[in-house]
């Protein structure tokens, strides 16, 4: 646990804090060996283990921890939602079976058929039938038998109200996940639709529009991220530095003019690096351009060509650089 922001790992303090907390009481009650009551009430009495439900707060705590640690939180949220729905349908199926037992198996078309019938006597058939009936109610995708008794009507009313809440929860959670994915894409990649609208409004040539579309397609296919600063700006400076060192230092250390530099200087330089992505066939710069940047090739190959665009003088690969004259002011 944290004490004034300091992580405490001392077992004595951990034990003392845990024994004095409410969580200890919840855990103790949930772990009581109530299974021995089966000897008194029989194996057909699952309520003797109902104290296990006191572990639900621990389950929620573990779920929150997993969501903060996993690299795929949206996938985890969808998985949790599906598990919750499955458990709810399972509990409802058990309640429907208990309701049928109370009214009498096979007394009317709504309850579970008579278990003396060999077709509906097996435990597996009983569970599958009740689970199917429960799923029909909660998903509202099929016709369920019409209730006959008042108890059945009340049961169905409560079930349909819960089904509405479940449906709203599913739609809301899925909508949040989709919105989160869109926000992630908007941060990771530039907004293509806005650029398209701008090009159309200014009647930019089809050829140039196609080049821009190819560049966007290249970004998405190769998962290139252009807005590193916006993604990492919430992190403290020292953590941003460590991330930049981890991502860019191997590339920077390949550059010959930086190989003899101290590590502290390289760590300062990596914070100044800005990723630039060029799609195949694009020119990085041309003869006569005013240079303001130094380029370091991280991956891919770059050809130095003549004015005709065909004759190749050299091919540069990862670790090569050019444009250093423009920033180092070398005559």
UniProtKB/TrEMBL annotation:
Keyword Cytoplasm applies: no
Q: How does it sit in the membrane?
A: Multi-pass membrane protein
Q: Taking every annotated instance into account, which residue ranges of this chain make up the domain Cyclic nucleotide-binding?
A: 257-331
TM ranges: 23-43, 81-105, 126-142, 154-174
Q: Which CDD domains match?
A: CAP_ED (cd00038)
> Main localisation, per the record?
membrane
Q: Which residues form a coiled coil?
A: none
User: Where is this chain's protein located in or outside the cell?
Assistant: Membrane
Question: Sorted alphabetically, which keywords does the UniProt record give?
Answer: Ion channel, Ion transport, Ligand-gated ion channel, Membrane, Transmembrane, Transmembrane helix, Transport
The family database entries (Pfam families) matched by this protein are listed as: cNMP_binding, Ion_trans
Keyword Signal listed? The answer is no
The family database entries (InterPro entries) matched by this protein are listed as: CNG_cation_channel, cNMP-bd_CS, cNMP-bd_dom, cNMP-bd_dom_sf, Ion_trans_dom, RmlC-like_jellyroll
Protein's recorded name: Cyclic nucleotide-gated cation channel alpha-4
Per the UniProt record, the lineage of the source organism begins with:
Eukaryota, Metazoa, Chordata, Craniata, Vertebrata
């Amino acid at each position: 646990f944290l004490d004034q922001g300091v992580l405490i790992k001392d077992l004595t303090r951990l034990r003392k804090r845990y024994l004095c907390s409410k969580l200890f009481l919840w855990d103790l009650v949930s772990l009581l060996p109530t299974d021995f009551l089966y000897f008194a009430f029989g194996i057909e009495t699952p309520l003797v283990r109902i104290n296990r439900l006191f572990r639900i707060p621990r389950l929620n705590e573990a779920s929150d921890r997993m969501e903060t640690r996993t690299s795929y939180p949206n996938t985890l949220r969808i998985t949790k939602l599906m598990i919750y729905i499955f458990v709810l349908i399972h509990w409802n199926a058990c309640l429907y079976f208990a309701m049928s037992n109370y009214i009498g198996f096979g007394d009317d078309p709504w309850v579970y058929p008579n278990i003396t019938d060999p077709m509906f006597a097996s435990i597996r058939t009983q569970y599958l039938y009740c689970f199917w009936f429960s799923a029909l109610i909660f998903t509202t995708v099929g016709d369920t038998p019409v209730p006959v008794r008042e108890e059945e009507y009340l049961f169905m009313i409560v079930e349909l109200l819960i089904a509405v809440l479940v449906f709203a929860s599913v739609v809301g959670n899925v909508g949040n996940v989709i919105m989160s994915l869109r926000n992630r894409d908007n941060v990771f990649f530039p907004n293509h639709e806005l650029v398209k609208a701008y090009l159309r409004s200014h009647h930019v040539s089809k050829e140039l529009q196609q080049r821009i579309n190819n560049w966007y397609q290249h970004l998405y296919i190769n998962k290139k991220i252009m807005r590193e600063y916006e993604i990492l700006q919430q992190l403290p400076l020292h953590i941003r530095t460590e991330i930049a060192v981890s991502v860019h230092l191997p590339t920077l250390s390949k550059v010959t003019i930086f190989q003899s530099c101290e590590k502290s200087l390289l760590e300062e330089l990596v914070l100044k690096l800005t990723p630039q992505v060029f799609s195949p066939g694009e020119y990085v710069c041309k003869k006569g351009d005013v240079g303001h940047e130094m380029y370091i090739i991280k991956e891919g190959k770059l050809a130095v060509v003549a004015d005709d665009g065909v004759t190749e003088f050299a091919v540069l690969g990862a670790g090569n650089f050019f444009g250093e004259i423009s920033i180092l002011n070398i005559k």
